Structures are given as structure tokens and as C-alpha cells.
Automatic annotation (TrEMBL):
The modification N6-(pyridoxal phosphate)lysine is found at K241. GO terms for molecular function: 8-amino-7-oxononanoate synthase activity; pyridoxal phosphate binding. InterPro entries: Aminotrans_II_pyridoxalP_BS (IPR001917), Aminotransferase_I/II_large (IPR004839), AON_synthase_class-II (IPR050087), AONS_Archaea/Proteobacteria (IPR004723), PyrdxlP-dep_Trfase (IPR015424), PyrdxlP-dep_Trfase_major (IPR015421), PyrdxlP-dep_Trfase_small (IPR015422). It comes from Leptolyngbya foveolarum. This is 8-amino-7-ketopelargonate synthase. Belongs to the class-II pyridoxal-phosphate-dependent aminotransferase family. BioF subfamily.
Length: 399
């Protein structure tokens, strides 16, 4: 008899040969703009902790106080086992931030997406989705059983054509898009998408994972950034990036949220967010509101890094410059495209040796490899200068 698991080793070999194999880096100590790895300090450009809150004492104390008061687990599904007042306080705080009637908190952003999409549409319905959408939106779309039609990244004209062509053949229609695209850093054309949706009676669901706590005057995300907060739309986001905790949410009309409490399987059939995570997210939203200068500092840091990268890339020899390209950004994600997976991997390794943690993102996650830098409000200009100096060393070394 042949070993029914033998294919796994073969598959792994293929993954290695394509240089697609990844492993996890173990980090010691507190989250922050500088982290410890094997006793070495690394300036950290690989964290989604955009506001620099994951090690904030007020949030740590909030989480500890919630554990002391309520214990560690939330002991069951909220519908069956009940929830803590903290859960509704957090949902209230999210709704106020997003200026929506209500909000529902899921145990992760991933669960928020798969549960919400499969509650909103089924096999009688149509989903139109940006090709660069996050995996959780894609998986949610597949799980829902709806017909999924993908439009080219950011191509509103193609979206309009697809709507005109297909909309009438389906009962409901849902347009799915990331707010900020996590592997590129650009932003979706929300006002245009909402206009099209209005014309064709389509729902819109936006994933604000990389935009809440980053974009908008109060950090409410893309909807606020574009002045679309008052329009009908399903605003999903995560508590695990700028809000330094774990969990996801959907904000929208009272009817939408009540419907999700009754129909989203990934909310109904899973354990509620732990008291510590709930309290941490509540404290993070409070700090965002108390310290709006964090948003400004984050924006300044993104501009400073982008500018320094452009100077550096402009200094490269003609031959080398063709291999590197900074992608335009509207967010805290700054990417430099690198011609192939082997080069980006070597660069990221060399940067680590020089004391900088930058992720190398490769196919199949993205079509073209890139160095992906996430900026934090708590990076200093010295941290950014250090990254630029290290990158300069790598690129000149390479010439
Ligand atoms: C991170 C992320 C998620 C998942 O959120 P988690 O809370 O980490 O599960 C969903 N969508 C996008 C665009 C993300 O970047």
C-alpha cells in the first residue's frame, strides 16, 4: 500500500524549490517599533500595530483588570452563554467611532468576513470582487455559494461594465473590496463604487482592516476619509491591527447588525472574544480619541519614509534601478517592488543581519515580489533613517 500522506513531503519540496517556503520568526519581549529577536534588537517595520499601541501601559492594564474582574475565557457562544457588559461597550464604542447605528464584534477579522458575506448572499446572488481582495473576503465569497465575478484591481470602469452585464440575472448583489489593500498600500475608490452600487441596487462591503486607526480625521477609516460615513454600506474591520488586540467587527445599520446576530454562523457558533481582548480594544479606541496626534505622526512617518526611499532609489545605477520600484501609497503600508523572489528574500535576510525587520512578500501572496514596510506612529525619524541606511548598504553591496 502506498503511504496516503507521502504527497505532503513532495508538495513541500515543490514549495521549497519555488522559494515559496516561509517560516515564523520568534520575537521576545514587548511589541513596539524595536523588538528583540535572539537577544538582538531589530527596528520593526513588519508590524500591523500602526498606532504603536500593542505595548501601551493603559491597554495592558485594561486587559489585566478585565481578567481580574471576569476571568480569562468568555465561556461560550454569546447567544448561548451570554456575554459581558464589556462586549456591548466595545460594540457601542465602535459604532460611535464609525458613526453607524450599531456594530457587532467577531472573534477575528477573518471570522467577521466569512460570517458576514455568507449571511448576506447565497447561490441566488452575485458578488463582484476586486482581484486583490484579502483572502478572508475571497474565502467568504466562496463559502457563500454566490456567483463570484472578479474585476481588475481598482478598475471601477470594469466594475461598472460587469454590473451592467450581470446584475439583472441575480437577486442580490454585493460588491466586496478592501479599503486599503494590504499588500500594496493603495486605497479603493469608495465614492465611485458607492455611486455605482446605488445605480444598480447593490450592497457594498468594505474591509477596513488596514484603514481603521490609519485613515480619516478621527481614524475611522476609508469611509470617513472619503466623507462616506453616512452612506449605506457594510463596514468591516479588525481589532488586531491599529487597535492592538484581537477580533473583528462589522459596523452598519441597526437592522444589519441584528440580522448578523441571527444569521452569521461564524458569530453564532464560536466563542465570544475573551474579556482581555475586549478590554484591550476598548482601551485602544479610547487612546485613539484621547491622542489624535498619533494619527498625524503616523502620516508624517509615512511621508518621511516614502521620501527617503525615493531619494535612495534615485541614486541607484540605471541597471539596478530597473529592479526596484516604490509603489504609491495612501496608507501606512509602503512597498518596494523587487524583480524576483530570490532577490527580495536575500534583501530581507541581509536587512535582518543589519538590525531591521522588513517582510519579504512573494508569490503566491502577490504577483510581483516586494519588500513591505509597515509604518508605526511610534517610529522615530532615527528608526526610519536606520532602515534607509541599512537598505543602502544592501543595494550598494549588490551593485
Ligand atoms: C488582517 C486582515 C484581516 C483579518 O483580520 P484578523 O483580525 O487578523 O483575522 C481581514 N482583512 C484584511 C484586509 C486584513 O488585512
Amino acid at each position: 500500500m502506498s503511504d496516503p500522506y507521502a504527497w505532503i513531503e513532495q508538495s513541500l519540496n515543490t514549495i521549497h524549490q519555488a522559494r515559496w517556503h516561509r517560516r515564523v520568526l520568534a520575537i521576545d519581549g514587548m511589541a513596539g517599533p524595536v523588538v528583540q529577536v535572539n537577544g538582538r534588537r531589530l527596528v520593526n517595520f513588519a508590524s500591523n500595530d500602526y498606532l504603536g499601541l500593542a505595548g501601551h501601559p493603559q491597554i495592558v492594564e485594561g486587559a489585566i483588570a478585565a481578567i481580574r474582574l471576569y476571568g480569562t475565557g468568555s465561556t461560550g457562544s454569546r447567544l448561548l452563554s451570554g456575554h459581558r457588559v464589556l462586549h456591548s461597550e466595545l460594540e457601542g464604542a465602535i459604532a460611535r467611532l464609525k458613526k453607524t447605528e450599531d456594530a457587532i464584534v467577531f472573534s477575528s477579522g477573518y471570522l467577521a468576513n466569512i460570517g458576514t458575506i455568507s449571511a448576506l448572499v447565497n447561490h441566488r446572488d452575485l458578488i463582484l470582487a476586486d482581484e486583490y481582495n484579502h483572502a478572508s473576503l475571497k474565502n467568504g465569497a466562496t463559502l457563500s455559494g454566490a456567483t463570484v465575478v472578479v474585476y481588475a484591481h481598482g478598475n471601477v470602469e470594469e466594475l461598472a461594465n460587469l454590473l451592467a452585464e450581470h446584475r439583472e440575472n441575480y437577486r442580490r448583489c454585493l460588491i466586496l473590496t478592501d479599503g486599503v489593500f494590504g499588500m500594496d498600500g493603495d486605497v479603493c475608490a469608495l465614492p465611485e463604487i458607492l455611486d455605482l452600487a446605488d445605480q444598480q441596487s447593490a450592497m457594498v462591503m468594505i474591509d477596513e482592516a488596514h484603514s481603521v486607526g490609519v485613515l480619516g480625521k478621527t481614524g475611522a477609516g476609508c469611509a470617513e476619509h472619503f466623507g462616506c460615513s453616512g452612506r449605506s454600506l457594510v463596514q468591516m474591520g479588525t481589532l488586531s491591527k491599529a487597535f492592538a488586540s484581537l477580533g473583528g467587527y462589522v459596523a452598519g445599520s441597526a437592522a444589519l447588525i441584528d440580522f448578523l446576530r441571527n444569521r452569521a454562523p461564524s458569530w453564532i457558533y464560536t466563542t465570544g472574544l475573551s474579556p482581555a481582548d475586549t478590554a484591550a480594544a476598548l482601551a485602544a479606541i479610547a487612546i485613539l480619541q484621547q491622542e489624535p496626534q498619533r494619527l498625524k505622526q503616523l502620516d508624517q512617518n509615512v511621508h518621511y519614509l516614502s521620501e527617503r526611499l525615493d531619494y535612495l532609489l534615485a541614486d541607484l545605477s540605471f541597471k539596478q534601478a530597473a529592479n526596484f520600484k516604490r509603489l504609491p501609497t495612501d496608507s501606512a503600508i509602503v512597498c518596494v517592488q523587487v524583480k524576483d523572489a530570490a532577490t527580495v528574500l536575500a534583501l530581507s535576510k541581509k536587512l535582518k543581519d543589519l538590525g531591521v525587520f522588513v517582510s519579504a512578500v512573494r508569490p503566491p501572496t502577490v504577483p510581483v515580489s516586494r519588500l513591505r514596510m509597515s509604518v508605526m506612529a511610534t517610529h522615530t525619524s532615527a528608526h526610519i533613517d536606520y532602515l534607509i541606511a541599512a537598505l543602502k548598504d544592501c543595494l550598494l553591496d549588490d551593485a
